[in-house]
Every structure is written in C-alpha cells, then in structure tokens.
TrEMBL record:
Residues 428-441 have a biased composition (Low complexity). This is Ammonium transporter. It comes from Streptomyces beijiangensis. GO terms for cellular component: plasma membrane. GO terms for molecular function: ammonium channel activity. Homotrimer.
Length: 448
C-alpha cells in the first residue's frame, strides 16, 4: 500500500476527481467488510453466541473510528520516527486543509485518512473470531481500544509510512498481509493462550449454526476486498490497481478450489464451510502480494495458501489452543504465506522493480519479507498477550462457566438471535372424527 511501496509511476501533484471518487467508493467497500465479517463469524458459532459474535465486530466500528480521529491517524501516518508517527495537525483531523493532497498522490488527505480508517476498524474485529463464546463484552471493548493504540497504529506506521522502519528496509505489503492479517492472527494467538479454552473444547460438538450466514459473510468479504486491495494503490493511473483487482479474484478462486480439493481428499466431502474458508484464505494471501505478482503467480499464491491454511486449521487440536473460528489458521498462516511468496513470485514489473527467486532476483527480497513477517508476528503476539493478561487480572476477560454454558448472548446483551417462543404455540391441537376401520358407526379422535 502506498506510501510503503517503491512505485514505478511518476507522482502526480494535482487533485484528481476520478481518483478521489474511486477512493471514496473503495472506502465504503472496505467498511462493508466489517459487517460481512460479523455475518461470517456469526454463522460459524452456536446459536447461543450469535449476537455476541456480531457485536464483537460491530463495536469496532464505533471505538476505532473515534480513536482514529483523535490520535490514531497521527500515530500511524504522522511524520516522527521509524516506530510511530505524530503530526500535530493530524490530531483530531483538525489541521488538514480541504484540498490538501496526500504527499505524492492525487487524493486529499481526508480521503486517505478515511480509507485507512476502514483498515484500522476491521483488523481488531478479525481477532474476535478466535475468542468466541467466552469473553466479556466490556473487556473486549477495552481490549480493542488498547490494542489499536499500542499495536495496530504503530505497526501500520512501520509498514506503510514513508519513515516506517519496515518500509525503509524494503518490505512489500500491498494491502495488509503483515499490518492487518499477521497482526490480527498473532494477536489472536496471544490472547487465547492467556484466556484458555472454551468449556467442552475437544469434547462437545461446536458446529456452525447457520452456514447460509457464513456464505453470505464470505460473499460480502470477497466483494469488499476489491476495494481493500485495488484501492490500496490510491488510484489507477498506471494500471497497477487493475492488476491487483484481477489478482484478487484469481487467487481467491484458486484458494477456494485448492481448499475443497484438500478437503475432499482428506475428509471425503466438499463442504460449504470449506468453500467459504478457502476463499477467505486466498483473499488474505493475495493481500500483500497481489501488486507484485502476475495472474499466473496469483494462481500459485492462492492454491498454496488454500492447501496450507486448510492443513493449519487442525493444528489447534494437535497443540491444544482453542482458536474458535480459525483466525490463526487462516489469517496468521495466510498472511505469512502471502508475504513470503513475494520473495518467490514477484515479477519486478508491476508495483516495483523488485524480483523474486523465480524471476532472477535471488533470495534477497525473501529475506526482507521474512524480517517483516517475524517482526510484526513477534511484536503483536507478545504485546497482545500482555494486554490480555493485564485485563484478565484486573477486570477479568472471561465470563463465568455458567454463562458460557447457558449462552453469552442473553447475559451480555439481554437478547437472543432467534425467538422460538411462538413456535408451535397457540390454540390446542385440532381433532377430527375418522371412521374406525372395520367398525361401522364408530369413530376415534386423531390430530388434524
């Protein structure tokens, strides 16, 4: 994502109405992804946790928006040092001119700020899938506020700001493989190691209650991801955004097919959950790499990610960590795969002149990508675990066992997702007189 990419195109110093409008549309598309994620996660949990899962995503829209305006944009994209930013005029978004352009681009600073806001919103929402069924909503809301402040905002600066230390090192992350997906996946792992497993993990069936909701959520994510990825070039004057658009579609399709193929071989069935999960795995993997690879490379990235993520979701049973909805298996693993494969499949002819191993560039870029992956993963894992530990020891992160077993929706939100109270109710069953076989003139009562 600009400015964290060495671009081949010349900078355009004047305002472009076309690019501005395009970026506002892309911002709206990325915003839709958070409700889409809520449906995706909400369908994957049991009935008793549906509303809580929806709310864990929706609350991010409120909390992160306010913090972004107050200080988040300044911390992430202000000019300061390699680890965090600060520009006085960005505080409260109050010192920005209406037509002031984002440096080196043809869109206003306000447009860049709102586009980046949508990334900041969905990243902590991604973490919530690992914590299903067992976290206090108040503790989750406070965790979001703390996490974006000390993890997401600084990491976004590392990766995408012009003076970020990973940017200056040459790490390529077109739209968030490190800053969004590895960041969220590592955070999820850190938190679940602190708060522990759900009641009945490995013992009780914990199947999705609504696969149609899962498919709807996956479809909204796929749709919004075009804004997420193609919009991250901040315009399309040189065609790079168009390449990212088609690579997003290609990699997602390849990952879905690869996941289903692995699933058929391994488990004997093609499942709707596998199709949805495979598509998301492909979207995750192409996010950092789609501006560096060709469409053929996108097929490879998607297929590799689809198989590896399908394999990774079973690791929680082997190692005993309860990643409820496979955030680690899909987002952490998918982000790592997509980020590292840049070192192999970068063509040197799309977003930059950096070439990977298969295009004569040697292993140099792979090493740089590994530094980016390891740095974000390690920082997010450790700091997220510390935050969860502190919250757990002060206000408590988990609901009680009784609440978890009976259902978190009713206790935390005083609501349930579905009202079954009227089902089968009403008047007493009707009866009808039916002749009794073989007995003239006699009848018996049966339910109508």
């Amino acid at each position: 994502m600009p400015p964290g990419i060495t671009t081949l195109a010349a900078d355009a110093p004047t305002l472009s109405s076309a690019n501005t409008g395009f970026m506002l549309i892309c911002s709206a598309l990325v915003m839709v992804m958070t409700p889409g994620l809520a449906f995706f996660y909400g369908g994957m949990v049991r009935v008793k946790s549906t509303l809580n899962m929806l709310m864990m995503s929706f609350i991010s829209l409120g909390i992160v928006t306010i913090l972004w305006v107050l200080y988040g944009f300044s911390l992430a994209f202000g000019a300061s040092n390699g680890f965090f930013g600060w520009t006085k005029g960005y505080f409260g978004l109050s010192g920005i001119g209406l037509t002031e352009l984002w440096p080196g681009y043809t869109i206003p600073v306000y447009v860049f700020a709102v586009f980046q806001l949508m990334f900041a919103i969905i990243t902590p929402a991604l973490i919530s899938g690992a914590l299903a069924d067992r976290v206090k909503f108040s503790a989750w809301a406070l965790f979001i506020a703390l996490w974006v402040s000390v993890v997401y905002f600084p990491v976004a600066h590392w990766v995408w700001a012009s003076d970020g230390w990973l940017f200056k090192k040459g790490v390529i992350d077109f739209a968030g493989g490190t800053a969004v997906h590895i960041n969220a996946g590592a955070a999820a792992l850190g938190v679940i190691l602190v708060i522990g497993k759900r009641v009945g993990f490995k013992k009780d069936p914990m199947r999705p209650h609504s696969l149609p909701l899962v498919m709807l959520g996956a479809a909204l994510l796929w749709f919004g991801w075009f804004g997420f990825n193609a919009g991250s070039w901040l315009g399309n004057d040189d065609g790079v955004g168009a390449v990212m658009f088609i690579n997003t579609q290609v990699a997602t399709a390849a990952a879905m097919l690869a996941w289903l193929g692995y699933e058929k071989i391994r488990h004997g069935s093609f499942t709707t959950l596998g199709a949805a999960s495979g598509a998301v795995a492909g979207l995750v993997a192409i996010t950092p790499s789609g501006g560096a690879v060709s469409p053929l490379g996108a097929i490879a990235v998607g297929a590799i990610a689809g198989v590896l993520c399908a394999m990774a979701v079973s690791l929680k049973f082997r190692f005993g960590f309860d990643d409820s909805l496979d955030v680690v298996g899909v987002h952490l693993v998918g982000g790592v795969v997509g980020s590292l494969l840049i070192g192999f499949f970068a063509t040197g002819g799309v977003q930059s002149d950096v070439a990977g191993v298969f295009y004569g560039g040697g292993f140099h870029q792979l090493g740089i990508q590994a530094i980016g992956v390891g740095s974000v993963l390690g920082y997010s894992l450790v700091v997220s675990a510390v935050l969860a530990f502190l919250l757990d020891k002060t206000i408590g992160m988990r609901v009680t066992e009784d609440v978890e077993v009976s259902g978190i929706d009713q206790t935390e939100h005083a609501e349930t997702a579905y009202d079954f109270s009227g089902a089968g109710g009403g008047a007493a069953p009707r009866t009808a007189a039916v002749p009794t076989a073989g007995t003239a003139g006699q009848t018996k009562k049966v339910d109508a």
